[in-house]
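Q: Structure for this?
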Amino acid sequence: MNLTEFDQAEIAAARDQNAPTRRATVPALEALLFTPVPVLDHGFVRVIDYMGDDAAVVQAARVSYGRGTRKVSEDEGLIRYLMRHRHSTPFEMCEIKFHVKLPIFVARQWIRHRTANVNEYSARYSVMDREFYIPAPEHLAAQSASNRQGRGDVLEGDEAAAVLALLREDADRNYSHYEYMLNEAEADPDRRGLARELARMNLTLNAYTQWYWKTDLHNLFHFLSLRADSHAQYEIRVYADAMLAMTRAWVPASCRAFEEYRLGAVSFSATMLAILRRMLAGEAVDQASSGLSKREWGEMMSVLHR
Amino acid sequence: MNLTEFDQAEIAAARDQNAPTRRATVPALEALLFTPVPVLDHGFVRVIDYMGDDAAVVQAARVSYGRGTRKVSEDEGLIRYLMRHRHSTPFEMCEIKFHVKLPIFVARQWIRHRTANVNEYSARYSVMDREFYIPAPEHLAAQSASNRQGRGDVLEGDEAAAVLALLREDADRNYSHYEYMLNEAEADPDRRGLARELARMNLTLNAYTQWYWKTDLHNLFHFLSLRADSHAQYEIRVYADAMLAMTRAWVPASCRAFEEYRLGAVSFSATMLAILRRMLAGEAVDQASSGLSKREWGEMMSVLHR
Amino acid sequence: MNLTEFDQAEIAAARDQNAPTRRATVPALEALLFTPVPVLDHGFVRVIDYMGDDAAVVQAARVSYGRGTRKVSEDEGLIRYLMRHRHSTPFEMCEIKFHVKLPIFVARQWIRHRTANVNEYSARYSVMDREFYIPAPEHLAAQSASNRQGRGDVLEGDEAAAVLALLREDADRNYSHYEYMLNEAEADPDRRGLARELARMNLTLNAYTQWYWKTDLHNLFHFLSLRADSHAQYEIRVYADAMLAMTRAWVPASCRAFEEYRLGAVSFSATMLAILRRMLAGEAVDQASSGLSKREWGEMMSVLHR
Amino acid sequence: MNLTEFDQAEIAAARDQNAPTRRATVPALEALLFTPVPVLDHGFVRVIDYMGDDAAVVQAARVSYGRGTRKVSEDEGLIRYLMRHRHSTPFEMCEIKFHVKLPIFVARQWIRHRTANVNEYSARYSVMDREFYIPAPEHLAAQSASNRQGRGDVLEGDEAAAVLALLREDADRNYSHYEYMLNEAEADPDRRGLARELARMNLTLNAYTQWYWKTDLHNLFHFLSLRADSHAQYEIRVYADAMLAMTRAWVPASCRAFEEYRLGAVSFSATMLAILRRMLAGEAVDQASSGLSKREWGEMMSVLHR
């Protein structure tokens, strides 16, 4: 992550702001505010605003219950109850806004989460920077033979070197041609310059873009449950992991409940539940007698005997 | 609006909170925070949290433009540009949370705005209060003869008195029976008491409920454009009017743009635009030669010659 | 459920329509189309339109895979895979529209599902019918002592009779006063009549309303998972049950997968999963050594030993 | 647009389907069903399913009015009334599903419309085709000097030739390297092949992708009002134009109302409205006395004197 002096001065200025407020504040998140956390080779994620805290979740839940139930000691228990029973609306009462710099192919996965507010850097209006994602050698994975959306072993030797060279050269050449077509910097007076909205089509999908991304805590948890998961592509998972750490600082009780009842939880189907009951009753069950396909049986066993 | 001593103490305590924050703060809105503004006979609306300010709208818009365009003096012009051209996403970067007490029939209209987060007082879990909306005499309107969703003149004399007496007696009697069926306060030990989730069905639609309602600035403007409008039912419009005043304190430049380009604006159809051009060219146009129906012609004339 | 002759003629006419289409059709759902299924004492639900079928789910999923994987024999397996791994977007490719008549207090729960399209009968424009929900004696439940949102035993004898009489008389009286205030039928020429949008506030929450409700299959499943569940209030669960039966006729393979992996599934938290592993390894675990609260331990045991 | 024999056979088979249905059908849209309409050099758009028609809009609106108002002759008037007064929910009762093939940079604009259901071809699972968008010479526009998101004159001569050559060569070379890195076709046994989810990052933003895109009529109109507009980028506008033509075949009355009250309409701000009134009263108003900025005055005059 390269920050220009300009960027650094702006972040320092934002962090120097200090105003009194009657709103809920979270000192642990205030400490992180505005500071970018590096992700991948040139990306980052940082929190730039937030609304609410664990107490706001509790407050919203208690609208339903009336006054009698307000006991501070029970707050975490209530939050766990809400998470366990998927009472999601109280978690919608908290809101957070991130500033993210990320490769375009990651942005294309991310944007599929529709319940969020987004403002992205526009390549229609502005000129993109010369920055591309090039995987670190240890993330240069082969196609998995068994799982079409998965990765296999890491490429090595000549193959790895060839791939890295191609990714670097192609992104760089295409960017140079993008600049040439634009004809903006050190412009050639004999050329008009191609419209930005057209020239951008020459860029590669590993070019970096950036956006503000704002969502409520319930939808953030949904995003994290899918993207901080081992099935998510590595290049988006590292963003989710960084955001999960920030969420822990922001709403620690809600986040503990999320990790207990969602991230770390497992769902057993009706058939699996019947198998579990047989097993706990002492019966020896194997795949043939389970009613599950080999694939599902394998999934179930790997969860139970991990 | 009756606030119990408990409520008053809680509001005072919330207003006494004062913590430093690095986030954007709006002193004019901080001054209003938590204080309920009375609406109708027992209702209120109050702001209990917010995120962002006019500068957050500008900041989001400028992600698209890159650094070169940042001039503070142009902020209001940019906000007006965004509003005029319906670039709505930067306004989604601000968020506000209200606590509202309102009659159930108003809540039923309000909830149709789907892009918001809501936690409502639950009559399944809790016992409702004995509070109903009874219109002030000057709002006791007759059915409009010309407009099926509109109101005509105000009822007077015996008819008004009879209506008010019925509304009051029916709401009150039904509430008493609700309490009786619940059998909770001063309970009769020989009765079990009806489930709350069932007993509530005896309440009238003017009973008061309350909720937290959280939305972003773009969707708030959409709500206000429909509900702070003369076509909206009076009983929801008074809430929208109170919220519009709060919005002016929060994001004054955005709100000015909203009043100029949305609330105070008029849309002319393709046919109306052709008529306007003929008129401005000096032609005398009447309904017969306009191509408009009598109704639309009337609407157009009333806008132009108000 | 009382259908007027007019209603019956209209339903018969709709069912008599028969046009050729190139779209996917589902004969089992066509057979049900337009026919109302009675729910509660005066309510109903009926399907009035639909788009797509099980094959549309498969088709959308296969956009991701390219041509090579198209084998009809694998369709149900693919649908089960999608449901198991919460790949929800292919289920959004099917759409269904219901016409529902339901008590207002049920409508108020239902409308909280925001991802749907709704057109409701408007008591601002139109006069409501004299129809109220009165529970059947076997559903006249007492408040549960242990669970504030639950129901206990059924009321009996004098108490039941008193409750039913109150519900009936109050709804009926309030409706009569509503009609009187409107002054529309057999109007008294000396009275103006109260505006409909005001008079309606005198109605009780068990008055029936009706709406068209349209949603996609993914969001329908979400609705059914919450409302066809034993924790849902009986009065909304009966609608969900009727809709689940219709969904089985419409998309049988998707519905089987939904019942296996969602409706009939159970989620175990991280802590519960650790307990399960200990149990399956032969260890005797009790609540004290489990790390669970008594409440959660009870929930877990009731699932495992049902 | 190149369709393989396989594609052509599949489309023909789909068009040969013919089943009876009780649902609303629209013969004019049935005639278009499944047939791709070419857009840009390799793209297309086609309707693959729909629900509802103009009568479904009317039916939903009339739920609000009760029976008395049903007169077939008034249907178009009612639709125009709904559109004029932005009563949008009845238009949500119709649904349509498109299959679209489009360049990735167009897809990135399009996906910002969040109220739609989408299933996109996955470059994580599947290998992309060697197809890129190369503008026709007459669309190879220079950057506008006056409007940063706009296009100026068309490039000519050597500059045009150079740009086209670069776009073609870069897209092609990057695709060849993508194939090489994948090592799937005519695979070199000594290389493992890079994971698809990584190799795709070498592709350019003019590569074609495809998706199913499903939305309701209200949100389709919103999409068309922004994308069939002269301010939209040409490369997305051509898709919107093709979809507008299909929408006319599907719901002709609704579409006429949309073109009259939305596409062809103009909004005048509060200040502009005051100016209009002065002008119509015979007053000579110029920019200096108008209260408008030069830019807004210019916009207003260009609308009035076009």
